[in-house]
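Weekly sync notes, structure subgroup
Attendees: PM, AL, DS (notes)

Item 1: joint prediction request from the bench team. They want all two components modeled as one assembly rather than separately. Inputs as received:
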Amino acid sequence: MADSSDIDNALIAKLGSDAALLALMPNGVYWGVAPPDSTRFVIVSLVDEADEWTFGGRAAEDAVYLVKAVGLSTTNPDMKAAAARIDALLDGGTLAAAGYTLMAMRREVRIRPPVEVDDVDPKIRWYHRGGHYRVTMALGA
Amino acid sequence: MARQHGYKGEVATDETGAGTTFLPVASINAWTLDTARDRVDVTCFGDAQKQYVQGLSDLKGTFAGIWDPTTTPGQIFKIAMGDVPVYLRLTPSTLTATNFFKGLAYLDASINVAVNGAVTIAGTFASAGPWTLEPPPV
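Output from the run, pasted for the record:
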């Protein structure tokens, strides 16, 4: 039985097992929020999702994920390289999840919001860079 | 009888043309059936309103679905690109599987491939013989 959460997990696992990305973002890859004291990490979250149906049941799942590198300015994170590595892994890449077959995976928009300045201590600044990635999986291995 | 949702619809075919052994077509998500009949205007001077006489049913319909390379070529395009009519069974809901339309039909099929979406298929059919509604309406 296909479990949609396995797609989320597969995405996290793919990014989290890449040595090049971990060298740039050594705290790892996390769903939604990183652990306390993390300074260079990758965040994955679900932005939008729609299922496609046939008479036999759900045929495909079409999800858009926010995938971004997050870095604290004092650690001199290489945000450019991290975002490029995320894109190299995901845009047109492969993804294996039990019970599914990948139909397409690609970036829809890139994101690079303004530098986030801490409300209390303006010397604390966070950089964010990445993109929205659409992952379309067909049910059935 | 309760009203029904279309998510349990079905399109099935019998390629032998016998109309006895139907196999569901995979990855179909919509069908329509139109039983419109020919009507001829026979309105004359003095009539209070327009009048028509009715001819034969021009039965035809459509179907749509998602391309599956393992099933769609054999179940749809082989028939559409051949010359032999197929027996179609159209079931509004398999929750009440004894209620369906069936009859011989000629099939046309098309495929739609776009950079920003799933590969989809669609088609039309027209009667190639008598059609029935099961069970017969009383």
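Discussion: The longest helix of chain B spans residues 72-80.
Action: AL to compare against the crosslinking data before next sync.
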